[in-house]
Specification:
Elements: H1 2-44, H2 51-72, H3 78-96, H4 100-120, H5 125-128
Helix pairs in contact: 1-2, 1-4, 2-3, 3-4
Length: 129
Amino acid sequence: MLKEFIICTIILILIFVGNGITQGYSRSSIENINEKLADLRKEMNQEEINEEEIGKHQEEIDKQWEEMFSKLAYYIEHEELEKVSRNLENIKTYIDLKEYDNATKEINEVIYILNHIEDKYSFNLQNIF
C-alpha cells in the first residue's frame, strides 16, 4: 500500500513539474514573439516606412518561430501551430507585396492566436473542468 502511494506521488510530482516547465517555456516564447510582432506592426505603421527594417524584423520572427515550432509541437496541437505558421507566411507575402495594412491585420490575428494558445494550455481550474 505504501509502495503504491509513493509511486503515485512521484508520478503526480513529475506531471506538475513537467507542466510547469512546458507552461513556462510556452509563456516566455509567446511573450517574446508577441513583442517582436508588435515591433514589426509599429514599424509598418510609421509615416516613413523603412523596408529594410521591416524585412529584418520579419526574418527574425520567422527564425524564432521555426525554433519555437519544433519545441512546441511536442505538447501543443499541430493545428493551432499551423494556424500561426500560415498567418506568418501571409505576413511575409503582404510585406513582399508592400501591403502593410493587410500585414498589420495578419499580425493582429497571429497575436490573438498565440494568446489563445497560451490561455488554452495554461494550467488552471477552468481548463481542468
